[in-house]
Structures are given as structure tokens and as C-alpha cells.
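User: I'm putting together notes for a lab meeting next week and I want to include a structural view of one of the chains we've been expressing. I don't have a solved structure, so I'd like a prediction I can at least talk through. The sequence is below, exactly as it appears in our construct file.
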Amino acid sequence: MLFRRIDKKVLSVGALYAVTAAAGAIGCAIALRSAWLGYSLNRPALYWDHVIYINEYSRWLTGQLYLSELLGFHNEHRIFIPRLLSLIDASYFDFSNRFAIGLIYALLTTMPVTLWLIARPIPVDLPAIAMAAAMVGFGLSICQWENLSSGFQTCFPLVHFFALTCFICFGRMLETQLRWRRAAWFALAFALDFAGTFSLASGVMIGAAALTACLWQRKVNTWAIAFGLCHAAMVAWYLHGAPFHALPPDLSPRHIVHFYMRCIGSLGRVLPTAADAIGITMALIAACFLGWGAARQKGPGHSAILAMICFILLQTATTTFGRIILGLDASLAARYSTQSLILAVALIVLAWERMSSPICRSLIALTAIVLALVANADSNILEWRDNIAIRDTAMFAFINGLYPPAQAAAIYTKAAMVERDYKELASWRKGPFALDAVDYRPPLNVIPSIDLSTIPACHGLIESAAAHEGWSELRGFTDGPSWILAYSADGRLAGYARSTIRRPDVAKALALSDERVGFDLFARIDTPIVVAIAIDRSAPACRISPINPPTALSTPEQTAALCSIDSVNDRPYQHVPTHKAVDGTVRLQGWTAPPADAESSSMNTWVTLISLDGKMQYFKAPPQSRPDVAEFFKRPALKESGFNITLGLSARPGKQTINLFSVSGEAAYKCSMGVEIE
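Assistant: Thanks for the context. Below is the predicted structure for the 678-residue chain, given as C-alpha cells.
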């Protein structure tokens, strides 16, 4: 019996070491990958709410930015601390985002370590050290990519960092006996409370969460009462003039609870059902720990962690109140994953500290591994890269001196404001216009050696080239991430971009491992661009040919094509007079086919876009597999009759008409159904 007990103990301890070592290794790998992505995907691009800092910096330079404006509202937030940090970023780092992103990573690394250390003494055993490393990786998880890629998002890690440090100072204030030390801890706690409150609107809950330490530590003194009164006065001033909105009258309690739980579990945002389960489980565990905290007196370390749990639960309530009007999907926004991750870290730290059994700790480590893998699913990286590709396309248009409405709208809802502020950025040579913004600077040393008449052809295509008043828009693809340089007929460089847009259809057709081969290029030239150049820093230049629509499109056959539009903007097609564009684009999915007696070895789908002034653009739709169509018509040649194409509508304002054609050999057959878009 003795040997059996020893064997069981050895096995359980061995399992603990193995599982925690795996958790630590996974955490380190996650942290390194997150840091690499944060570095490689960092762009000196200011988008969405970040754009407001450009005008504020302009007024700062002219001495017209006042303290009242820094303390004023941006939407429902008074973001005084992030505004100060933006001035530092603009003044010393040229709006490059390097300072802000570096600060975000530092804060997200510090908080898990701090939570681990205040829960227990400095770890000396290997499982504890491995779990501390796992928590660091957990805190840097990629599900919060939105907070890892924009300088404006410093407000999210800042409010949590200030909250945690405030709770630590408040707990020390309750514990210490010396009056001067209490006064010092009080001053520090309130300063951190102020900083957190003026980092994000949910910071108004920091004071209420801090006061729960009086319950956990079973202590109340005059300094705690003074802290509560000061916080109440600060919040009263903060909320004065705040823009409140009423909740929809048809909003049910079930919907509110669902939003709240999903927001708590948003670290699993790529799987909404999993996010629901994670949120409910974490809320129940948090309630158990709060009940445990209320049952017995706790020290300042445990008190700070319990207060942090209270704060995140209260913060999620404010998020629910402020964002539920946007729909349930808003609860899974990447920016809210930070609070979900920190709550998970706090719960894991408390569970580890309270459960000393090797088996229990092994289960805790396994749980941490599962959550870390869910929070770092590759689909988060895909979403992150897609977001960067959208910003890059807009930045290259701006660098080329153009502000197409759709590209400006991709940066901020107020297109006129974007053009005004980015032109000011250009005059300062900051942001994407800075000389050291290498992500937006082609290899200029290669350009003089390019001979347009002798370079070979690329594996690529310019699928559409639309000329407008003073500028042109090109869309296409090339084999591999490259610089795309557009030239005019007289050999003048008219603009450039990079191929960073995902094109799975091209990757499949050309058997490429990288889907990011598409590009949108906006060039300052009003005549057709005759050539574009794909350049890699080490590879030779090559020519991308523009696509020419078949002449048959101008005189289509009398016989109509067989066709179907299955979806518009990923929603089932409906027979309505006009369909709405989404962010200046429309996506069509369906199939076309020529008459049965007109089949040939070369069959394609073409799309025309006709504006109100009668000008027409041509697009060749990449083929898609449609075995269902071939089976239905008993025509094997229709296996690739499908299409899935996204059209940009920014070139021409107003309503536009889309027509479909099936081109077979030298003949074109028009689809009887058209689509009106505005």
C-alpha cells in the first residue's frame, strides 16, 4: 500500500511538472508570436478614432490646445491620459505608433506578472515559474489584436493597469498603521484612480471596486471614506454633460444577459458558442471566489485580485450598457477581449493559489492551455492581417496624393476630415508620410534601373483599370507579395502600392501558398496606365499586363445567358429595386452559363458597372467550382461556371447598374437580370 501511495504521488507530481512545462512553453511561444506580429504588422497609420489626434496635435503646435479640451469628451469617454500619450507619440515618434504599441505590450506583460506575484511569494518551484510564463503569454493573446495594432487603443490596457495598481495601493492604505504612510498610499491610490477614470469611461468603476477591499480585508478607516468621497466627487464631475443614450424599449433581459456573458467570454470570440460557455463559466467561478473572499478576512494581495475581478465585472456591465444597441456581435469585438483575458488570468491565479493538490493544479494548467489555444486561434491573425491590408490600401492612395471616398471612409466615417488631417500629416512628414515609414516606401534604389521595354511578364493581371478625372484605379493580382509601381504612357511613375489583399481564388488557380497577392492601386493620372511593375527587394522586376475586355461585350448575342445571382454582400439575393453597397463595395456570388449550343473550351463570366453618366467599367470574375450547376443542367462544362466578385463603387457617385455576361469563345451572352446598386 505504501508503494502504491508513493507511486500515485510521484505520478501526480510528474504530471504536474509535465503539464505546467507545456503551459509555460505554449505561453512563451504565444508571447513571442504576439510580439513578432505586433512588430511586423505595426503601421504608422491613424484610423478611426485615432484620427482625432491629428487635429489636436495641430492645435498643440499653434498653442490653441487647452486643458479643458484634453479633459473633454470623446464620445462618452474623457481620454485625458491617452491624449497626453498621443502628443508624446506625435512629438517624438512621428505618429509612428511605435511608442504606443510598445507601451501596450509592456502593460499587458506587466499585469499578469503582477497578479501572480501579489497572490503568492516569488515563485521558486518550476511549476509556478512555468505558470507565470504561461500567464504572460495569455495576457498577450492575439484575440485582442485590435488593441495590439492601434495607438488609440492604449486606453484599454491603461485602464486595467491603473485599476490594478490602485487596488494594490488601496489595500496597503488599509493595512499600514503609520499616518504618513496612509496619506502617501491614499494619494497614490487616488492618483491612479484619476488616471484610470480619465483613460476610459469604464474607469469610473475603479473607485467602487477599490472600496470592496474594505470587505475583503475587514478594515475601514477615515482614509478609505475620504477616498470614496473624492472618487464620488470626481465621477459626478466626469459625468456632467456626458452623452447618454437610452436602451431600445424592446430589449429583453435575456438579450442583455446574453451580451454580458458573451463579452466576459470574448477571449473565445472566434467561436461565439464557445464564448458564451466561457463567459458563463468564468462568471460563475468569479462569483464563487467573491463569496470565498467575503467569508474570510484577506490580505492586501488577495484583496487586490478580488477587487480586480469586481472591476472587470462592473466594466463589462458598462460595456453592455454602451454597446448593446449595436447588436449581439458587438460583444465579440477584439478590443473587449483584453478585459476577458485579464479576468481569466486573475481567476487562474487565485485557483492555483487556493488549490495545492498536484492533480488540481494539473487541471488548472490544462484549462489554461485550452483557453490560450482558443484565444490565439489563427483566424484572429487572419482578421488582423485583413484589417491591415484595408488600411494599407488607403494609406498608399493617400501617399499617392488621392483621397477616394471609399478609402477615406475605410479610415474614418468623416471623409472630408480624413483628407484635411492627412494632408496636414503629409506637410509634417509624419505617420505614413515619414521618411522612416519603410512599410510605405518602395525600394527606390531599384526603380532607376527599370527598363519598361525589356522587363519580362509576371504571373499576374490587372483585372480592371478605371480612368477618372485626374486619377485612375487599378485592381489586380501578382504572384507573391510585391511592390506595384504604376507608370504612365510617357514612363512617369504615377503611384505605387503593395499586393497585400487576400485572393484565395488566384492562390487556388496558381497553386500559391500565400493568398495575399491582390492589390488596389490609386494613381494620380487621368489617362489609362499602360504598365505596372511588380518588384521585390531581391527579385527582378516584371510587367503586369492590363486585362482587355473582349470585343464581343459591345455587341452581345440576342440569346440570353443562363444565370443566377445567389447572394449580394453575403446575403441571399432578393428582387428589390436597389441594393445597398457596404463600405463602398458590393460582392456578388452566383453563376452564369452560355446557351447549351454555345459551349466552348473558353468560358468566362464578365461584369459591367455602368454609372449614371453612362461610363462603363469591365471586370472579369474569377471562376468558381459549381458542380451543382453542372449536375442540374447535365452539362459537365459548367463545373467552373460560378463567380464570386467584389466591385468597388467609389469611382462614381450615385446609383450604378451591374450587368452580367457569359462569354464563350468569341460570343457574349447577356444575363437577363441586372442589379441596381447605390
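A couple of points you could mention at the meeting. The first helix runs from residue 2 to 40. The two ends are 80 Å apart (CA to CA).

User: Perfect, that's what I needed.
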